[in-house]
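Worked Example 4.2. Consider the chain below.
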Amino acid sequence: MKQLYTPWGASLDKERVLNEYPRPQMVRESYLNLNGEWDYAISKNEFEKEFDGKIIVPFSPEAALSGVNRFVEPDDYLIYHRNIVLPEGFNHDKLILHFGAVDQEAKVYIDNRLAKAHLGGFTPFRVDITDYVEKNQFSLKVVVRDLSDISDRQTGKQKIKRGGIFYTPQSGIWQTVWLESVPKQYIENLNITTDFDKSKVIIRIIPNIENSTQPARIRLLFKQMLISEKNFQSNTVELFIEDRKDWSPEAPNLYEFEISYGEDNVQGYFGIRKFERKADDSGIMRFYLNNKPYFSSGVLDQGYYPDGLLTCPSDDAMIFDIQSMKDLGFNLLRKHIKIEPLRWYYHCDLLGMIVWQDMVSGSSRKDIFFHGALAMANIHLNDKWYRLFGRENKESRLQFLSELDETLQHLKNVTCISTWVPFNEAWGQFDSIKVEKHIKRIDSSRLIDHASGWSDQKVGDYHSRHIYFSKIKFKIKNASKRINALTEFGGYSLMIKGHSFNPEKVFGYQKFETTTNLEEAIKNLYLTQVIPELSKGLSVLVYTQLSDVEDEVNGFLTYDRKVLKIDIELMKSIHSLISLKFDDAIKDRQN
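Applying the procedure from the previous section yields the following structure tokens:
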């Protein structure tokens, strides 16, 4: 197997690794990026004192860009160490240490004192290390265990025995590590809610000290022009926005704000939009954006890279993936069983790309095709039968719910996310009727695809199907209650020599030898199979997929992101035709 590099990985500056501010909706001037060179050891002993060498954080040891290229076994301890020297004047009152993600179980030590333990390989966590730091320098150690897919924890598409639709596992720190200093009373978090119909934004400050308030002021800007300013004493402020500029993929308008709260100051942004499931004038359920029926055409996005695995090698690489799909006419990315750094969502907000967000899956059951075969026969088992879904362990179910809540909290303010997807193809699915209600209680502003593709429990906002091996067919009666959505299809494969992870093994649902044949097949798929279903209420498409990933060569882009396999103008023309036919389908039923 050939080691591939993306253009950004090949030119990585080890002194400035993913150096951008990692939390765009809550920015402070106080910021110390801790990415870069750390000591590391892979050991059977948690208290290993000798290090094996240097690792480039936040790339996992299994990733080429880490400089390590070593696999961490489930019974290994992965140990990180770095001495931190604070810049002069950095420490004001409190020091908060942030980890974007550490896979899976992490213990954080400051000067050999345990400061925090966290379980969950895809969700962020922070540590108040104020009481652990006595001077302007300290020792930081992180000890990690990763059971990967031998457990029923959330692992996503990682598998120790990789192959097919499952990929090389990675361990340890894989998102940015950073430090900030804040006042004694500070803004711990923000809840940003927009009311589209009333043209207002509601921002709730969550202070670090419960029930405390500080004199506060907000400045609201659009394209750096001040449009509103207000003093307030409570922890909630509402602003009416005159001459409102809406957010959409076609016009991704964003408002900026600045909030002072006592001695604390943060900057952020938001977009005003409205997502809903709604019946059109003929009674067919559609996806509505900003009170209008909207056709969503997207791609499945795994977020894997040959040189960084789950870690994107640079900000520009994120932008490239999103913009490449926009150039093809897509307006939706389904982020598949992975939680990205907040900067990825920021770029979707900024560039104008709707996002469906999958939760990360985990299961003790590994024979996923059992449920797939049932789904093809239109058999959908009740997901209260925990053993059949690999969720017989109560602790496993509780951990999933804990990480679900962390994910909802983490991404709640993101503008582009229209839909939560708690379960995919029955992988570790359980109690999805209860889970759907739970998500709705927390966030009623977005839609839910409760069981993408298989094991439908007949709730949620979408009649969601994955169709690869049969003719695409939908029934209009299903669109009387939920939105008809083709949430995975296509997966047509073409290997490009010199840009393939494994030239000896090609995985795909239908294989082609030339670009011409691939383009003709994709054109035929959309025009002869997809378009006729628009009259039956089909309103959402998710093609598989954005890029090749390891054995899978069914991406529009090669795994190294160096070759686009399909003509841009062809794909744009297909989307133009779909848009026209979608409008015609709505008009025809109204008549």
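Residues 155 and 298 are 24 Å apart (CA to CA). The chain has a mean pLDDT of 95. Compare this with Example 4.1 before moving on.
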